[in-house]
Design goal:
The chain has helices at about 15-25, 35-40, 50-60, 65-70, 80-85, 185-195; strands spanning about 5-10, 30, 45, 75-80, 90, 105-110, 120-125, 135-140, 145, 150-155, 160-165, 170-175. The chain is an alpha/beta fold. The strands form 3 sheets. Strands 2-1-3-4-12-11-10 form a 7-stranded mixed β-sheet. A hairpin with a 5-residue loop joins strand 10 (about 150-155) and strand 11. It is globular and about 45 Å long.
Length: about 200
């Protein structure tokens, strides 16, 4: 079987870390900045960054509607941090005019864990990914404050806050596993892209 072709939305954010993780798993990686690049991929990563900036850039580059259509059409997508915000159907504390791409039946609160200097690392149990804890880096991270009936919780912090969710072919984490070399979420994305997830 040929390597799955995975896009990374490359308008702003931590594109390199995701690319390194995906290539390490054998994927062909495509930076996505135009609609025609999006059409060529079997899966997509929405990286961390600034969600309001990425939202504006998707509109500037004519990507918003193609992204919404791809998500609704079942394209496997994994969003980290800002990517979680972009995939959420509802956002608390959004800036004026901020839009999401939607697809995840969740409500997300931006910057729920404080400023950059309050970033932290931890490990989390994620039973859906098998035994052993997942290394998780939180950087100005959002949190999921409500989960609708269509979505499933994959991970919580010890205090109960929801930090990873899935709905069909959509995955999202409030944290950055790619920063610490954790690749199991990316592996699940590849499985979804190959029809095995």
């Amino acid at each position: 079987m040929s390597a799955p072709r995975i896009g990374i939305l490359a308008l702003q954010g931590d594109v390199r870390e995701h690319a390194r993780t995906l290539r390490g798993l054998g994927a062909e990686v495509v930076p996505v900045r135009r609609a025609e690049e999006l059409e060529s991929v079997q899966g997509l990563v929405l990286p961390g960054g600034e969600s309001s900036v990425i939202d504006k850039l998707t509109r500037t580059f004519g990507l918003r509607e193609p992204l919404v259509a791809a998500i609704r059409g079942g394209l496997p997508v994994y969003g980290t941090c800002a990517g979680l915000i972009l995939l959420a159907d509802r956002v608390e504390d959004a800036i004026a005019g901020q839009q999401t791409l939607g697809g995840l039946d969740v409500t997300v609160r931006r910057n729920a864990f404080g400023r950059q200097n309050e970033s932290f690392e931890t490990t989390l149990p994620v039973p859906a990914l098998g035994p052993g804890p997942v290394a998780a880096t939180f950087i100005r991270a959002p949190e999921v404050t409500a989960v609708g009936p269509a979505a499933e919780v994959l991970a919580r912090l010890g205090d109960g806050r929801i930090v990873a969710v899935r709905q069909g072919a959509l995955l999202a984490t409030a944290f950055h596993p790619e920063v610490s070399g954790e690749d199991r979420f990316h592996r699940l994305l590849l499985d979804l892209a190959c029809g095995r997830g």
